[in-house]
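lol ok so funny story. i was supposed to be doing the assay writeup but got distracted and ended up predicting the structure for this chain instead. priorities right. anyway since i did it might as well share w the group, maybe its usefull for someone
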Amino acid sequence: MRKTVNILYLIPGLGIGGAEKVVLTLCRKIHRERFNLSLMYWNEDDLLAPIRETGTDVVKLNPAGILSLRTVLEIRRYIRKRSIDLIHTHFMDADLLGCLAGLLSRTPVLIHVHSYPFPAAGRHGVRYRWMSRFAHKLLCVSNRVRQFVLSRTGIPAGKCEVLYNGIEVSNRFGEKSEETKRALKRSLGIDEGSVVVGNVSRLIPDKGHEFLLEAAAEVVKELPQTKFLIVGDGIL
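and the output, tada:
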């Protein structure tokens, strides 16, 4: 009989963001007969309710400083209590905590790198080079992210693999009725005959909105009925 694998997700917060939604999707879609899930976090709570609805055991930490020994020992105690087989970390602070707790408990660690550009400061490259000695793998969300990680850290290429994000499409992006589309356009002051291109993301330089705007200027020259709708919040 196949052993059930106990996985601990470690992530700083459960805010509305791409990495957090990836974790939520994993909690919803993972094979529950093969995997038991736990999650530890310490910041935002936006996605707490839907994650708990999946049956995932969730613990909110109260760290006395990100790298406090107390926090690392609390995670190690939880790992032993739940017989955790694998620690899956998201974002640098969680990566550091997970590697330390994994080292103390002799538990394998997967580091998930979600963003580009990868943290560019020299000390970050040193940190990840150190962490790679104890992590089983670094999972990067694209080839570009992987290339950047390797260039900034010197980690052996065999330690980094690409794992594209899965997306739920069946109920999130189903076809809308024509009347619903027309009503939405009217509510936004958009002509019903317009073709709408949407972008939803944080309004920060890393997201590259300037390229979308440059492309939009070219598109409307040929297709003047096209409207571009940017949804988000941030410094831009």
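The mean pLDDT is 91. Strands lie at 5-10, 35-41, 57-60, 86-90, 109-113, 137-140, 160-162, 195-200, 226-231.
back to the writeup now i swear
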